[in-house]
Design goal:
The protein is an alpha/beta fold. The chain is built from eight helices and nine strands.
Length: 234
Amino acid sequence: MSAPSTRTMPGARTRGRISRAGQYGTEISTLLQEKPGLVYSSLWGGDLEAFVLQAAPRGLMKDRLVIFSASDHVLQPLGNRMPDGVIVGARGANGQFAEPSPINDWFVAAVAKAHPGVNPVQPHYRGAQGVLAVKTAVEKAMAANGGKKPTTEEMAAAMVGQEWDAPSGHIKLALGDGHQAIQSNAAGRTKWDADAKMIKLVDIVHFAAECVNPPPGIKSADWIAEGFTGAKCN
């Protein structure tokens, strides 16, 4: 069987609500005419919401594979207007992709208490991840300097190569000589849950951090071209 034809949507980003987001009528018409077997887009936020609201009624998302690589945050506002079967990602194991753990259970409960009706998604997880990174660095720096308030330089030094647990899983500053983080990733399919009145992610697949990031010292493009040499996948 030959591979399906593929069409990539532009990844342009604009500001504002759906009413001010991009108009994709021309691109949708082109895709409907070309009839690709797979449509991929890295659109996010209001742009992605606008694209789904314009494309779904015209049937673009039927009878073909649709992939949105950074889209978990639009599932709640779109609700059942997001078609079933769309493959989505969250730039990490964020939101519904986060695996059960004490810290994730605490985080989800804390968000629910502070913001009733809000399901934490990628931005919430990223914010928590950053706060916990700083907390870990402060504790490491204070342990090294006798418990004193760390200087900026001590904080920066403590950050290099550090690891910490976040609601989305274990984070490691493993690349770029200890300055670039890696973490696990995941993907799943959309499925409207009428009882819960929300989109649930099903058929979720998780990928270890070392499976989706190149080894130290190798550029991502070179790693892909070489066939993912050294990838450590479950």
